[in-house]
Amino acid sequence: MRVAFVWFRAKEERESPSDRRMRRTIRLLGDAGHEVVVLCPKWWDGSDHEVEVDDVTYRAVTADRAEGTFATKLPGALRRVRPDVIHAQSDPPSAVLAASLGSSVTRAPLVVDWYEHRSGSGRLLRRAATAGDAVVVPSRTVKTHVREIGVAGGDITVIPDPVDLDLICETDPEEPVDVVFSRRLDDDANAGILFLALAEIRDREWTAVVVGDGPERETYERQARDLRIDDRVDFRGALSIEERVALFKGAHVFVQTATREAFARDLLWALACGCVGVVEYQALSSAHELIEQRQRGFRTTSDSELTDRILQARSLPRRGFNEAFEGFDRERIAERYVDCYRELVDDGGLF
To answer: What is the enclosing helix (H) or strand (E) of 263?
Structure first.
């Protein structure tokens, strides 16, 4: 299958979560043997119109990052690619609307990838959300958001982010740790709630590791010092996925407290590595979806419950792998994208 990805923000200096999802999806489809072409503004040096990176073709629609020019030239670029399906990032809306026109020209269905809660002009967001034949989201929480914008529920497909089960199985665990927290350390991380919970059990034996960096790291480190638990909380900073997997496989409990999370990716990796999950429910976070109906997961609905749930989680046996998450493996998630594409193509009567 030939898939044209419309990615206006390819090769951003600092990728957003939505950009990282696009990169993972492109890699998934390429690794699965599909022909992938990424239509984007030119980001590479030299005079070549396109460049190949890791068996993926990046083709320049424009020489710069002008949204208006990109939208004007995109339908023609799509016509030259002649894709079976078009997969467009939801931002900016102008690119989605241009991709919709390209879909009409090529008769290829358009899938809009919507990763996060978005604010802005309601009319513009609705036009972008409803421009495609389907909207793909990472969680039911984001699906609810997209439905509120105006997309019919039947036009929305939930496809979560994947994990690499081969990497998990092949990685040796680090030294055991009782509690781990892993996320970008910004205001939404809400890590201070975890420190308050741990301070309640300072008379017990426990160790904790915080993974991640960000603008609020010093604030969180200061909170741990103020609570006199800094000698038992190890701030590791940003770690590679290989380093995180080794840490998760040696950890007992993963705690998720973030107030906003389109998809709790590190929580998923930790659960697949055998951690017991403790999730504080937040209205704008999808994390609770990963532990629903699972024996090795606890949900809290208030800060005061967090300490009790951590203690409950520690009462479960340690594990180094959880086969219940095999459905999130890279190959299985790639199949879900292809199933979505084929259903749209079949509905269009193209094949």
So the answer is: none
The C-alpha atoms of residue 341 and residue 261 are separated, in whole angstroms, by 26
- State whether 144 and 188 are in the same domain: no
The CATH number of the domain where 35 resides is what?
3.40.50.2000
Maximum Cα–Cα distance across the chain: 68
Residues 266, 189 share a domain = yes
Does residue 228 share a domain with residue 297?
yes
Q: CA-CA distance, 66 to 72, in Å (whole number)?
A: 10
Peptide bond into 176 cis (omega under 30): no
pLDDT tens-digit series, residues 273-283: 999 999 999 99
Tell whether 60 and 134 lie within a shared domain. Answer: yes
Whether 26 shows a pLDDT value over 70: the answer reads yes
Is residue 1 within 8 A of residue 21, CB to CB? The reply is: no
Q: Which of 214, 219, 178, 174 is nearest to 197 (CA)?
A: 178
**37-90 pLDDT per residue, tens:** 999 999 999 889 999 988 889 999 999 989 999 999 999 999 999 999 999 999
- The encoded tokens of residue 307 equal 């300490």
Residue 118: per-residue pLDDT: 67
Taking the mean position of all CA atoms in its chain, how far away is CA 246? Answer: 20
CA 235 to chain CA centroid, Å, is 23
Q: Which residues contact 293 (CB under 8 A, 6 or more apart)?
A: none
Contact 314/180 with Cβ under 8 angstroms?
A: no
The half-sphere exposure of 288 on its side-chain side, counting CA atoms within 13 A, is: 14
Domain holding 155, by residue range, is 2-162+330-348
Domain count, the chain: 2
Handedness of CA 198, 199, 205, 209 (dihedral sign): positive
Region of residue 264 (phi > 0: left; psi between -120 and 50: alpha; otherwise: beta): beta
